[in-house]
Amino acid sequence: MLSTPNITRYKPGLNHLAQRIILVTGAGDGIGKAVAIGAAKSGATVILAGRTVAKLEQVYNLIIEAGGPEPSIYPVDLTGATAKDYDDLSVLIDEQFGRLDGLLHNAAILGLRSPLTNYSSELWSKVIQVNLTAQFQMTQSLMTVLEKSEDASVIFTTSGVGRVGKAFWGAYAVSKFAVEGMVQTWASEVEGLGSVRINAINPGATRTNMRAQAFPAENPNDLKTPEDILPAYLYLLGQDSIGVNGQSIEAQLR
Ligand code: NDP
């Protein structure tokens, strides 16, 4: 686990993501929105993936207004999309850009905070689908275009409850444990083979809708904003992190 002041205070050079093609899931809100805008400000062409098109269009407009490279919008609901959909996406990216340099798996759902003993199987399946299986399938399909990049960075999103089991976090916690395992497994498979690196980021407590849903009594003003935690994302998405593989990185100092 990497947790250094250097990463949380990482200051990228101007336009350090110029010419990079980066796909962000859940780009319409919360942390994904901030990373999409931050990456575009650093020069990246961002593929905005998410389920609420109006939110993606708003992010698109913000990037254009700020003079960033024109993004693309990829409407996708991770509950229903199939491996075939991700294969088609891979072909589209190949045709439009010829490669993919960054893939941030950010979208996730909380499910219900309840004892596992009472957890509904239906909700379990939905949370595991969105937070784990869809991410596995999308990465597998996009590997073709990731391997066409000189250095591609795949980032999964983890959580503190995906490292130490805590009561009532249900399928969400289990999905994050699995994400940590998938990152270690996949990273060790690609290590030394080619140009793709695979890591995880733990955002830490961050002021978003999901955090408010999990902790309704908390004062959001006590929390870091999505913009505050950008350095770790910009570090992993750019070339300064070449050679970093299989790590689970903290976006905030503890
Ligand atoms: P938000 O709920 O604010 O945003 C989640 C984003 O994912 C939204 O844009 C949402 O779309 C999208 N999304 C959810 N379900 C789907 C789906 N089925 N298909 C496509 N897109 C979907 O969450 P955060 O920004 O807080 O979380 C981002 C990541 O960080 C998650 O992986 C979360 O687990 C992790 N995390 C967050 C922490 C925090 O304190 N905020 C702490 C630790 C980890 P829509 O806008 O349409 O709802």
Can you describe this structure?
The protein is α/β, with parallel strands linked by helices. The protein has one domain (15-249): Rossmann fold (3-Layer(aba) Sandwich). It is 41% helix and 13% strand. The chain has eight helices and seven strands; from the N terminus they run H-E-H-E-H-E-H-E-H-E-H-E-H-H-E. The protein has helices at residues 5-8, 30-41, 53-65, 83-97, 121-146, 170-190, 209-214, 230-237; strands at 21-25, 45-50, 72-75, 102-104, 152-157, 196-202, 248-250. The protein has a seven-stranded parallel beta sheet, with helices on both faces. Strand 2 (45-50), helix 3 (53-65) and strand 3 (72-75) form a beta-alpha-beta unit. Helix 2 runs parallel beside helix 3. The model has no long low-confidence stretch (mean pLDDT 96). Residues 26, 28-32, 50-52, 55, 76-79, 106-109, 130, 157, 159, 203, 205-206, 208-211 line the site of NADPH dihydro-nicotinamide-adenine-dinucleotide phosphate.
In a few lines, what is going on in this structure?
This protein is an alpha/beta fold and 254 residues long.
Low-confidence region ranges: none
What characteristic shape results from the CA principal axes? globular
Annotation field: number of helices: 8
**Over all CA atoms, what is the radius of gyration?**
17 Å
- Largest beta-sheet characterization: 7 strands, parallel
What structural class do you assign from the helix and strand content? Answer: alpha/beta
Looking at the overall shape, the CATH architecture is 3-Layer(aba) Sandwich
Give the total of domains. 1
Q: Would you identify the CATH H-level superfamily?
A: NAD(P)-binding Rossmann-like Domain
Strand portion, in percent?
Answer: 5-15%
Roughly what percent helix? 40-55%
Overall mean pLDDT stands at: 96
End-to-end C-alpha gap: 13 Å
